[in-house]
Write a structure and sequence with these properties.
This protein is about 35% helix and about 20% strand. It has about 400 residues and is an alpha/beta fold. Strands 14-15-16-18-17 form a five-stranded mixed β-barrel. Strand 14 (about 335-345) and strand 15 form a beta hairpin. The chain is globular, with a radius of gyration of 24 Å. It binds iron/sulfur cluster.
Length: about 400
């Protein structure tokens, strides 16, 4: 039952609360919507009636429908629904991106995304889970969780309790990750801004619930540059956290991105970044030469780094990382890895392991792999490695 409420005058509030009580007594499954639902972010209604399934505010058709569909999945009618239940996606059938929010509350000085997309708006948890389940039912084996700021999921709705299969689940990264892990497919987290609570997902990785893979953009290692970028953290903390993550989940693959040649970056500060790379021994790294995007606050900072120096620093950075990556990948020779096959190329199967996100990381090339099923899992024995990719044979 969906109860539409009014909160305009006290009498309307009382009547709305009575109606919710009546509906709860009638069938127990109640979604509240309308103006009273918005009061105190939904807490007002929840305090009076803690058993309601969801509380939404006015103009919340989508949220109401997603709360309803969390209880009562929408039947697919091929004669009237032109779009298949899993939606339309441009990725191969076996993997899909799952966008959990839009916008960002940070104001990193090099970035104009908040100006373009606005502040963070998290998708309702039930809606995200429904989409994920539809994708899995349609054959998806790997979900790539994306957003502008994945770790902030739910901040805008104060981690409101959503519902999934009749169960209350908080709109929060850890809880979402746990719920996604129940779908029985690979779940990979991208764009995880390094908030402290990110530490909570590492044990899920250690227990095989999520892929042991964390894409966490650190951007720099110099405290002064990070401050100019308006980014949190400092290199010492970051190193300690990486160490702690690896202690909990030794097989974790850490991916990060950095900016070389940020305005004001001195040669010493850049070297500090290279030292950090050597110490952190990250698995996958991307580096951009600073790009003065129109509208970015960082463009007004003093001492811009000339373009050729920015490019030269980026190249030096990548050379260091290439060596680190080659050493780390060489350690995998002789191990057995579970892979997901993406394509067949001649007599080679092109696959990815837990350490490889599509498009941005390396691949595993499996010799004599023509018979391997595209979109299926296989176990392979790693026989070769270079700076980015692995070579393997069927185990
Ligand atoms: S870089 Fe990422 S975290 Fe920073 S403002 Fe842009 S989208 Fe937000």
């Amino acid at each position: 039952m969906v109860v539409n409420t009014c909160g305009f005058i006290d009498a309307a509030v009382a009547e709305s609360l009575d109606a919710i009580g009546e509906a709860l007594a009638e069938n127990g499954k109640v979604v509240v919507t309308g103006c009273l639902g918005a009061k105190d972010g939904g807490d007002f209604v929840r305090q009076a009636h803690p058993k309601v399934l969801a509380v939404t505010g006015p103009h919340a058709t989508r949220e109401v429908m997603s709360a309803v569909h969390a209880q009562l999945p929408k039947p697919h009618d091929p004669f009237t629904d032109l779009v298949p239940p899993q939606g339309i996606k441009l990725t191969p059938t076996h993997y899909a991106y799952l966008k959990i929010s839009e916008g960002c509350n940070h104001r990193c000085t090099f970035c104009i995304i908040p100006a373009m997309r606005g502040d963070l708006v998290s998708r309702p948890l039930g809606e995200v889970m429904q989409e994920a389940e539809n994708l899995v039912k349609a054959g998806v084996k790997e979900l790539l969780v994306v957003s502008q700021d994945t770790s902030a999921y739910g901040v805008d709705v104060r981690y409101r309790t959503g519902f999934w299969k009749g169960r209350p689940v908080k709109t929060r990264l850890t809880e979402l990750a746990r719920a996604l892990s129940e779908l029985g497919v690979w779940v990979r987290l991208h764009y995880v801004y390094p908030y402290p609570h990110v530490d909570e997902v590492i044990p899920l990785m250690a227990h095989g619930k999520l892929l042991p893979y964390l894409d966490v953009p650190f951007q720099h290692a110099s405290a002064r540059i990070l401050k100019l970028m308006k980014r949190p953290a400092n290199a010492e903390n970051t190193l300690a956290r990486i160490k702690a993550w690896r202690a909990i989940c030794p097989e974790i693959t850490i991916r990060s991105t950095f900016i070389a040649g940020f305005p004001g970056e001195t040669e010493d500060e850049f070297r500090r970044l290279l030292d950090f790379l050597e110490e952190a021994q990250l698995d996958r790294v991307g580096c951009f030469a600073y790009s003065p995007v129109d509208g970015a606050a960082a463009n007004a900072l003093p001492d811009p780094v000339p373009e050729e120096v920015r490019e030269e620093r980026r190249a030096r950075f990548m050379a260091v990382q290439e060596r680190i990556s080659a050493t780390r990948l060489a350690r995998k020779i002789g191990t057995t890895q579970r892979v997901l096959v993406d394509a067949i190329d001649g007599d080679t199967a092109i696959a990815r392991s837990a350490a490889d996100a599509p498009e941005i990381d390396g691949v595993v090339r499996i010799a004599n792999g023509t018979a391997m099923p595209v979109g299926g899992f296989a176990d392979v024995l790693v026989t070769a490695a270079d700076a980015h990719d692995l070579g393997a044979v069927r185990a």
